[in-house]
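The data are quoted verbatim here:
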Amino acid sequence: MSPFPSLVTVSALILYFVVTINVGRARAKYQVPVPQTTGNLDFERVLRVQLNTLEQLALFLPALWLFSVYVSPIWGSVLGATWIIGRIAYAWGYYQAAEKRGVGFAISSLSSIGLILGSLVGIILSLIKA
């Protein structure tokens, strides 16, 4: 197996770690005490980036690995890297304004859809060959 899906996985986890740290930094910057999660819109956007990234990881990671096993580890890694770029664009845009998150969301969502559909096709083809 190629090491590239592993590299993409570690990169996605680092991305998640960074957006999680950003929540702590925003909590201090906007003076939002623990466990409060509302009250400052700038803080809430940073928190939503972290939560949405966590939600998307639950879909992305299995899709990345299924695609890499049943279709191609290289193409899985390309789609996975595209997902990471999309999530960075999503975070960058959302930190500025909620309306600016769309492009990043579209990039990461299309990457996830490609991984999921590709995995499904690869698994079905594998079953047919068996």
